[in-house]
Amino acid sequence: MAPPRKSKLPKPLPDGFVLTDSEKKKWRLGKIIGQGGFGLIYLASQDVDRPVAADTHFVIKVEYHENGPLFSELKFYQRAAKPESMQKWMRSRRLGFLGIPTYWGSGLAEHNELRYRFMVMDRLGSDLQKVCECNGGRLKKATVLQLGQGLVDVLQYIHENEYVHADIKAANLMLGYRDPEKVYLADYGLSYRYCPDGIHKEYKENPKKGHNGTIEYTSLDAHKGVAPSRRGDLQILGFCLLHWLCGSLPWDSVLKNPAQVQEAKARLMDNLPDSVQQLSVNSASTDEVAAFLLYVKTLDYQAKPDYQCLKGLLASIATEKLDFSMPQEAVEELSTKVADLCTKEKKAGRARRPSKAKPSATSMDEVQEHMKSKPVLDANTCRPPLTKLQSQEKEEGVLPAVRRSLRLRCKPTKSYKEDSDDNDDDDEEEVAAAAARPIAECYLRGPPIGPRTQSKQV
After folding, report:
1. Do 282 and 360 sit in the same domain of this protein?
2. Where in the sequence numbering do the catalytic residues fall?
3. Is 24 among the annotated ligand-binding positions?
4. Do residues 110 and 133 share a domain?
5. Which of 122, 157, 210, 353 is deepest in the core (most CB within 10 A)?
6. Last residue of a domain, one of 313, 347, 381
7. 412 and 300 housed in the same domain
8. Enclosing domain of residue 35
9. Does 186 have pLDDT greater than 90?
10. What angle do CA 195, 199, 203 make, to 5 degrees?
11. Do 358 and 413 share a structural domain?
12. What one-character-per-residue DSSP string does 293-340 give?
């Protein structure tokens, strides 16, 4: 029986299916918790006699045997990321943490005449992309610099083991399942062995392979079809840091045209550091990111970076924990702009129908257009004025500065801690002021009662 096309996800294996890895260790599959270009992700356990617990520490990635992404990722872990090798490297550099997931085993399996490849990994939490979305697209400057320093350590380790990642982005940065303050660089499906047996790949442009990777962050070398390298990884990281700090990139409006994206990135790199420093948002300067990218610009294709120098360029005030809360300037900007749009929408509604302030299609289109320029969660909506009862409801995870104009309904995850200070004195004053306003006479009389309204009241 021929397997389905490679582009399709594999047919799910039954719950409780037992896999045996290449070292004869047995693993029991639980429920599916995710999927990607490689295949499916299952909860897993080494206790094959019991159902897999919801809080298990392991997951198993499964794809068809003929597919490629998981095979590439597996080769990276087997060659470069064995736990004992990482521990030795960390001790030599006095590091307490290295953000690479732990590989526990792999193997092949067969079910209903279909062949599968699987890999057992540490279970991780949510990804950084969801955190960014809940924060209006930005992270605090100290957090961005801390993330940058940790990722430089990760890149140094994999570079010294002859690999590059080639696809660094927030969606591939996973928060720890048990400890969400630890961030891991995951998904090595595009990893590339740039220096096999100590011999660096030669610089060679290939337009047929141009623009590989994630278009927002991919390096200028990748745009030209050049094989991934160390400087490419660092340039991708620099673009990510700039995005997390500013909430946008200069080429966001032309992402559908890779050639224009390439031109915009070339202009930014040609005019450093001014081109990046001019992108500063309020008090969050971009000087450190500008210096980081300026150093990357000086690297030759085969040059070995000075990783300690790069970490020094991203040095910030040391803090014990990563702070994933929304930057204050993002809170103020989001609440102000959305409040203005909601006010405009309410006025448009009153002009057409004085008795009911429902949002018009035109004004909602304007809100949606605004949302495109500052990414927020799809669940965010613009609503009519809240009643007194609604204003008094307590909603966890809602920032006080935003509540009055826009209710951020970010589903809580185990990947980060939400602010707990959801109440302030201003809310009570506004509720009191709303209660003191005179009620329109039309509402005191009540609506006319007809057959339809009577049936609804019953």
Report:
1. no
2. 167
3. no
4. no
5. 157
6. 313
7. no
8. 18-122
9. yes
10. 75
11. yes
12. HHHHHT--TTPPP-HHHHHHHT-----SS---SPPHHHHHHHHHHHHH
Please state the domain count of the chain. 3
Structure tokens at 327: 């930057």
Q: Is residue 427 domain-resident?
A: yes
Model confidence band, residue 217 (pLDDT cutoffs 50, 70, 90): very high
pLDDT at 102: 93
Distances in whole angstroms, Cα of residue 185 to Cα of each of 44, 60, 98, 147, 150: 21, 17, 9, 11, 10
Residue 60 carries which side chain, given as an amino acid letter?
I
pLDDT at 357: 46
Q: Give me the residues paired with residue 32 across strands.
A: 42
- Is 163 part of a structural domain of the chain? yes
Are residues 142 and 24 part of one domain? no
Give, in degrees to the nearest 5, the angle at Cα 435 between 433 and 436. 65
Measured CA to CA in angstroms, residue 149 lies from 94, 312, 313, 354, 439 at distances of: 15, 8, 9, 56, 58
Q: Is the domain of 175 the same as that of 248? A: yes
Element (H, E) at 119: strand 114-122
DSSP-derived secondary structure letter, 276: H
For the segment 12-23, the average pLDDT, to the nearest whole number, is 95
447 and 353 within one domain: yes
Residues 6+ apart with CB under 8 A from 31: 15, 42, 43, 52
Q: How many helices and strands (H and E) does the chain possess?
A: 17, 9
pLDDT for 46-100, tens place per residue? 999 999 999 999 999 999 998 877 888 999 999 999 899 999 999 999 999 999 9
d(CA 44, CA 356): 54
pLDDT band at 379 (very low <50, low <70, confident <90, very high): very low
The partner residues of 109 in beta bridges, in order of sequence, read 116
CA 395, CA 139: separation in Å to the nearest integer? 23
